[in-house]
Design a protein that fits this description.
The structure is a homodimer of 233-residue chains. Chain A is α+β, with helices and mostly antiparallel strands. Chain A has 2 domains: 129 residues, Jelly Rolls; 86 residues, Sandwich (Jelly Rolls). In chain A, 44% of the residues lie in helices and 21% in strands. In chain A, the strands form 3 sheets. Chain A has a 4-stranded antiparallel β-sheet. In chain A, β9 and β10 form a beta hairpin. In chain A, α4 crosses α5. The radius of gyration of chain A is 18 Å and the shape is globular. The model of chain A has no long low-confidence stretch (mean pLDDT 95). Chains A and B meet through β5, α3, α4 and α5 of A and β5, α3, α4 and α5 of B. Chain B binds a DNA duplex (30 and 30 nucleotides) through α8. Chains A, B: This is Crp/Fnr family transcriptional regulator. Chains A, B: One of its GO terms (molecular function) is DNA binding. Chains A, B: InterPro entries: cNMP-bd_dom (IPR000595), cNMP-bd_dom_sf (IPR018490), HTH_CRP (IPR012318), RmlC-like_jellyroll (IPR014710), WH-like_DNA-bd_sf (IPR036388), WH_DNA-bd_sf (IPR036390). Chains A, B: Keywords: DNA-binding, Transcription, Transcription regulation.
Amino acid sequence: MKLRARDDITDAEAEAISDAIGEIVEYASDVTFIAPKQELTHSTLLLEGLMCRYKDLSDGQRQITEIHVPGDFADLHSFTLKHLDHSMMTLTPCTIAKVPHTELTRITEAYPHLARVLWFSTNLDACIHREWEVSLGRRSALERTAHLFCELQQRLAIVEMASESDYAFPLTQTELAECLGLTSVHVNRVLKELRERGLVEFRGGRVTIHDLRELRRVAEFDPAYLYLEKRAR
Amino acid sequence: MKLRARDDITDAEAEAISDAIGEIVEYASDVTFIAPKQELTHSTLLLEGLMCRYKDLSDGQRQITEIHVPGDFADLHSFTLKHLDHSMMTLTPCTIAKVPHTELTRITEAYPHLARVLWFSTNLDACIHREWEVSLGRRSALERTAHLFCELQQRLAIVEMASESDYAFPLTQTELAECLGLTSVHVNRVLKELRERGLVEFRGGRVTIHDLRELRRVAEFDPAYLYLEKRAR
DNA sequence: CGGCAAATTGAACAGAGTCAAAACCAGTGG
DNA sequence: CCACTGGTTTTGACTCTGTTCAATTTGCCG
């Protein structure tokens, strides 16, 4: 369904994906289920919950490099990389479908257009990475935090898990800080300011947006990098 | 040659790539040759020179999100994205080969293994983006600058354009700042410190490394994210 | 020699980090 | 039903890394 939002997928292609799905697995919250260098034989299709990619530093610091929402083929890039240079962790309890790499080889060879759609979806991850680089490199803590809330609102809205004014986002402020390249103390102060300015509230694992237009203006959020429009075959 | 460093490419596959190459073009330095939203019909194989991807902010600030070295299929991701969300600019005079997307469709359908190798190369860009996120989010200005010098040393060494102790890197300090999410003034001070510590010197468009081991230690540089080892077919 | 972009330096300032304490809150067991 | 626990959030005071602004120097090129 999510792929169809951006590309025309034939019934045969959709069925090929369904057939490729192996085991369905549940993970608890806060579980690192892929470590760097671990050899991988399947990719993870996220059905329910939130997860993230992150890298550790030797002093215990951590940088989350992307958040995944339901519908994301979370580690499809492991199909070509064979092992990852980073870790993957659940942020909430998750339900995932495992898709063996051998099946991916089979269906991408049988359906070249589907191969390009999947390839596109890993390129979309790179688009998100680039936008985060801009946030981390150039936006202030406030703008950056606002931007993250805008991104998640948009991405969750696609899968009907966010309205214009609110969505579930059960991270701790420490995890938020690990996304934003800030300390949890500073994140707390920024959240206070966003709240006092009447833009967003982050509380009890929910984001409540009071003024989406203004929030986007503050964040300088332009959803172009999420490639929402439908693309030609 | 560069693809062969990481994957076994058959002669037929190599020939298919050669055949796919269209026009060879020269660009001057500091030319933005791809703007966001521009519809693209070919991808750019960088033969000579350095180029980068960057995003602009409304206040004139700019974040460079990746640097490309000779041998990189610099905007292969435009094959699946159709248009980019960012710009591409030359940092030096460049020679490039244009590869029409129609040709890419043809050769990836004819050679599925080659398709995966090309797919891999766009995933490698994402790996580099993630490492930059870590730098921008968690490393100090000094570590971050050291890390960039390590990355370029490694990537240029693959194409025999860098030794262990020096390589050409003709950027201005302002451009360096745009990579590092810093101001040019601060970059200047960081370069001074790196020089005084006897680690690296950046001068006259060259990087001279006096102590690579120590530089890597300071930067906490682990080349794993560049996937240098050869991978199974 | 002149012109100009790039590099360098200094001084003052601000955004974000550090450290430490306090308040809050959900879940647990008595 | 309530006290206890541990993790999370909140706040204050202080520090420091990196920015800003402005001036000066350097180096290249015609």
